[in-house]
Design goal:
single chain; transferase; alpha/beta; binds S-adenosylmethionine; Rossmann fold; 7 helices; Methyltransf_Superfamily; 225 residues
């Protein structure tokens, strides 16, 4: 059961955040790989390499169509979860087609209410997920629960530059088009910063810009042993 009551999830939401992730990704699923495979790949590679370097097993949160699954080490043990059945259907097809032995299982699950026991994983990978969800802190709290002490949370995604005019534009676009596009264009570092300040048991290990053009940021957080 999630440690995060619905009221806390709602408290995290802001105007424009009331979109439904499942509806948005049911729409994206048929064209997702065509649009997002290539230019998000360097980030997936970096996150998969970092995750494969941990002791594992790896929980891939928001696995989507499974584009990152072949990028984990063949020696890894990976469980993928996603809220969207149509995205997950494509991930399952990819695992079968490519015979990805490192994938132990794929399940439809809300990352805010993971059905795993505490400390079940050595690593949780979040690839382009936190800016999609209206409740990033609730997801971080829940993945922190299932990662064991000494394990890591590894995230790749876009962090908004600290430019007030750009922030205002991103917030406007999010409010106006958030429900259609299914993500928040405005994702400031403050989301991680506030969360880290609220968690004495977690520490930032790495924050690194990734191609293309340093547009995305790899963040590694360790649950303090
Ligand atoms: C932008 S896609 C990224 C997919 C994949 N990781 C990749 O790199 O292409 C974000 C995915 O996160 C999933 N997602 C969003 N919120 C979620 C939640 N609360 N629980 C589980 N999955 C979620 C969406 O359904 C979608 O498949």
């Amino acid at each position: 059961m999630s440690a995060f009551p619905q009221s806390q999830r709602q408290a995290e939401q802001r105007p424009g955040d009331d979109y439904n992730v499942e509806t948005a990704y049911a729409r994206w699923a048929p064209m997702y790989d065509f649009i997002f495979a290539k230019w998000l790949e360097p980030g997936r590679r970096a996150a998969a390499a970092a995750a494969s370097g941990t002791d594992g097993p790896i929980l891939d949160v928001g696995v989507g169509t499974g584009l990152e699954l072949p990028l984990f080490s063949p020696a890894a043990s990976v469980v993928g979860v996603d809220l969207s059945e149509p995205m997950l259907h494509l991930a399952k097809r990819r695992v079968r087609r490519k015979r990805l032995a490192q994938v132990e299982g794929l399940a439809c699950m809300d990352a805010c209410r993971l059905g795993f026991k505490d400390s079940s994983f050595g690593c949780a990978a979040l690839m382009y997920v936190l800016s999609v969800t209206p409740e990033p802190a609730a997801i971080l709290n829940e993945v922190a629960r299932v990662v064991r002490p000494g394990g890591e949370i590894i995230s790749i995604g876009r962090i908004s530059p600290e430019l007030p005019a750009l922030a205002a534009l991103e917030i406007w676009v999010g409010r106006r088009f958030g429900s259609q596009i299914g993500w928040r264009p405005h994702f400031p570092w403050k989301v991680f910063d506030d969360w880290l300040k609220s968690r004495a048991d977690m520490r930032l290990v790495e924050r690194r810009r990734i191609a293309p053009l340093g547009l995305f940021t790899l963040v590694r957080i360790q649950r303090i042993p």
